[in-house]
Design a protein that fits this description.
There is one protein chain. This protein is α/β, with parallel strands linked by helices. The protein has a single domain, classed as Rossmann fold (3-Layer(aba) Sandwich). The protein has 10 helices and 7 strands. Helix 5 links the parallel strand 5 and strand 6. Helix 1 packs across helix 8. The relative contact order is 0.13.
Length: about 280
């Protein structure tokens, strides 16, 4: 029996990428699923994929914008009503957000923080009483390697992911201090093959912000050179970490390398990473 077998596992952002892969792997390991995503069609595709992969998989789906406080509360109520219990919460939903601080539109900051940080806070707050009540719970919040490494032109994203790390580590301290039966894990993925970079351009277009040829080129390089890991591999690493009750899971050699660089050069790592970026991206 694994740590997830028979458990009710909630996964946000389950319509694609890491969230979809988490849903499939959790079902394979015997979990009962509560899946949500802002895109209803993508969410339905994930549910169909899980059902095809795992015969008899139990799946609850509901469309959800994680930045909606009241909507998230209603979603938590619906999941508890459906299953009667919640054991694990994977706060996975996230979006990208780029531009320099000087050039960033306030709306990029607002939307990125609303999804990446407030979505994690809302999910944790709404589900935590039920997870504690389960007697064997776990909260898993997805940060990023940009949760410990700042990077130019990713101000909104870095701000949100540093925030997820701080929030999650605080939660872990409080769960231990309160002797609550809840494990807490913060996840720091490196380059996983998802649509997060491309979606950042779509968000800019949605807000009427000019998308330049340089922006498109940077996203192309991210997609071709940096976002390489199969989401299924990432999901396995994450769930293995949960089953081992790890406080911190770094996903990918790039996440581990960056972590090492930041630890060795805490005040000057930006120069090291700038050199690495020039080698990858070329002159910008």
């Amino acid at each position: 029996m694994t740590a997830v077998q028979g458990k009710v596992a909630v996964v946000t952002g389950a319509g694609s990428g890491i969230g979809r892969a988490l849903a499939v792997e959790l079902a394979r390991r015997g979990a009962r699923l509560a899946l949500s995503d802002m895109n209803g069609a993508s969410l339905a595709q994930t549910a169909a994929l899980v059902s095809a992969e795992v015969s008899g998989a139990q799946i609850h789906t509901q469309q959800l914008d994680v930045s909606d406080l009241e909507g998230f509360g209603n979603y938590a109520d619906a999941v508890v009503q459906h299953y009667g219990v919640v054991h694990q919460l994977y706060n996975n939903a996230g979006i990208g957000g780029g531009r320099t601080i000087l050039d960033s539109d306030f709306r990029i900051f607002e939307r990125t923080l609303a999804v990446n940080l407030w979505g994690v806070i809302y999910g944790t707050k709404w589900f935590l009483p039920h997870i504690i009540k389960s007697g064997d719970g776990h909260v898993i919040n997805v940060s990023s390697l940009n949760g410990y490494m700042a990077q130019k032109e990713l101000a909104a994203y870095c701000t949100s992911k540093f925030g997820v790390r701080g929030f999650t580590e605080t939660l872990a301290i409080e769960m231990r201090a309160g002797k609550h039966p809840v494990g807490v894990t913060v996840v720091h993925p490196g380059g996983v093959h998802t649509n997060i970079a491309t979606a950042s351009l779509e968000m800019a277009s949605e807000f009427g912000i000019e998308v330049t040829e340089r922006d498109r080129r940077r996203v192309q390089i991210y997609n071709e050179k940096l976002l390489r890991m199969d989401p299924a591999q990432a999901a396995n690493i994450i769930i293995d970490g949960v089953e081992a009750n790890k406080a911190r899971v770094r996903v990918g050699n790039d996440a581990k390398l960056v972590d090492l660089i930041v630890r060795i050069f805490p005040s000057t790592y930006g120069r090291v990473l700038a050199l690495m970026e020039r080698l990858t991206m070329g002159k910008s």
